[in-house]
């Protein structure tokens, strides 16, 4: 089943309202006191029902008492119809808060295995991940999978939050912490140096014990500030959109590179399309700003742009700054069975879904050898069904369409000239080219 990254109904209405013309003067007048603070992109990851969404709600409620966040109810984060019915987070929610040191753009990521692809799009924008582990369960299957994905996509910093600490003995908490540190070390993180915070997200949300939220914020403040490339042309992968009647479309995403100023001419590229428009307004958490820089999570009002033309996975950039192709050379590594990968190898010509940045696309892999076995790597030409925004050095992930299992990871080595795809037939198109 194909899923899409959606915004919650309250958030959609908030975005629509905040971009109305009559409110622009008021929004401009209420400039954020935190405008000079650096922004850090944070996300919660971990197994289903371990308390990621409860922790997200608790952070906003506790910090709202000091004017550092807007309190968000649990059911506004846990929002979609499927989630209401099943009580789980499928789509990704974005919200903001701040400390004395930083602003934080927070992503609540889904934990359900069927919707890991949305989690991939979420982690692609994270500077630091909060790994939530319930003390009552310890490390579970999706805990490991989320860590694998986070590592593949380039998340370098992890903070562990051991949730439901009030329900177990101290000795159990010690064991869970040891297990978490060993797991992090196994997946390439510095498990010994990682900050581990113990607490109860539910108790914090209820106002009974809020200390763990401040401990978590202190741990986040200690993580190193990532390097931002503010010079050069703009690059912002689009994670979602909201249509504004009579004004255009708001595209939402995190600026990966460069600086965007209000009134700049921009273009959106992806799925074979090139859309040119003007950034007529820029907002960061419902406050209009004159510019945004690398690392800022924002909404950009694109003048006159119809919502149906904009897709998640497109990239926004200054004119002629985004490269797009459906043919690339890449280095591919097939995960071994010990790495939760495949038991069997794959043949040249293998076709499956490729995930990179905020986009996903069907791709065919023509390898330099006939067979690739688990634990091996190979160079391959990758042909995508549609032209997508790409850059050299960009990582990608391969997931099995049947099992929803991460089976490979890779990196784009070279961008080739696009090839013509006739009738969605990748095999015929690659054969014709040969």
Automatic annotation (TrEMBL):
GO CC annotation, single: mitochondrion
EC annotation from Swiss-Prot or TrEMBL: 3.6.5.3
Coiled coil: none
Primary enzyme class: hydrolase
Signal peptide start-end: none
Keywords in alphabetical order: Cytoplasm, Elongation factor, GTP-binding, Hydrolase, Magnesium, Metal-binding, Nucleotide-binding, Protein biosynthesis
An example molecular function term from Gene Ontology annotations: GTP binding
Similarity field: Belongs to the TRAFAC class translation factor GTPase superfamily. Classic translation factor GTPase family. EF-Tu/EF-1A subfamily.
Protein's name in the database: protein-synthesizing GTPase
Organism phylogeny: Eukaryota, Metazoa, Ecdysozoa, Nematoda, Chromadorea
């Amino acid at each position: 089943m194909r899923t899409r990254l959606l915004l919650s109904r309250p958030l959609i209405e908030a975005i629509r309202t905040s971009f109305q013309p009559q409110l622009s003067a008021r929004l401009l007048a209420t400039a954020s006191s935190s405008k000079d603070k650096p922004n850090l992109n944070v996300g919660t990851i971990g197994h289903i029902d371990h308390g990621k969404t409860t922790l997200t709600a608790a952070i906003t409620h506790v910090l709202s008492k000091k004017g550092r966040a807007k309190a968000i109810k649990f059911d506004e984060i846990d929002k979609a119809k499927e989630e209401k019915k099943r009580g789980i987070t499928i789509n990704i929610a974005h919200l903001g808060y701040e400390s004395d040191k930083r602003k934080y753009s927070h992503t609540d990521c889904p934990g359900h295995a069927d919707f890991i692809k949305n989690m991939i799009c979420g982690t692609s924008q994270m500077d630091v991940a909060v790994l939530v582990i319930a003390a009552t369960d310890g490390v579970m299957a999706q805990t490991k999978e989320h860590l694998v994905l986070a590592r593949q996509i380039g998340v370098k910093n992890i903070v562990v939050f051991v949730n439901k600490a009030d329900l177990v003995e101290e000795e159990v908490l010690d064991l869970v912490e040891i297990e978490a540190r060993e797991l992090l070390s196994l997946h390439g993180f510095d498990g010994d140096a990682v900050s581990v915070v113990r607490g109860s997200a539910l108790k914090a949300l209820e106002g009974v014990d809020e200390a763990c939220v401040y401990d978590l914020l202190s741990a986040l403040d200690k993580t190193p500030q990532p390097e931002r490339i503010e010079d050069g042309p703009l690059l912002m992968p689009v994670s979602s959109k909201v249509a504004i009647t009579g004004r255009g479309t708001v595209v939402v995403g995190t600026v990966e590179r460069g600086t965007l100023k209000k009134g700049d001419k921009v273009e959106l590229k992806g799925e074979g399309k090139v859309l040119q428009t003007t950034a007529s307004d820029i907002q960061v958490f419902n406050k209009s700003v004159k510019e945004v820089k690398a690392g800022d999570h924002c909404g950009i009002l694109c003048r006159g742009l119809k919502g149906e033309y904009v897709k998640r996975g497109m990239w926004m950039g200054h004119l002629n700054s985004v490269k797009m192709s459906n043919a690339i050379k890449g280095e591919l590594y097939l995960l071994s069975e010990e790495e939760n990968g495949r038991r069997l190898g794959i043949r040249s010509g293998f076709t499956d879904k490729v995930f990179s940045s905020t986009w996903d696309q069907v791709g065919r892999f023509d390898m330099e050898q006939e067979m690739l076995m688990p634990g091996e790597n190979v160079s391959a030409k990758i042909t995508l069904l549609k032209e997508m925004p790409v850059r050299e050095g960009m990582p990608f992930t391969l997931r099995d369409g049947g099992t929803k299992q991460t089976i490979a990871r890779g990196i784009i080595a070279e961008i080739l000239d696009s090839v013509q795809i006739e009738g969605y037939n990748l095999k015929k198109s690659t054969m014709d080219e040969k």
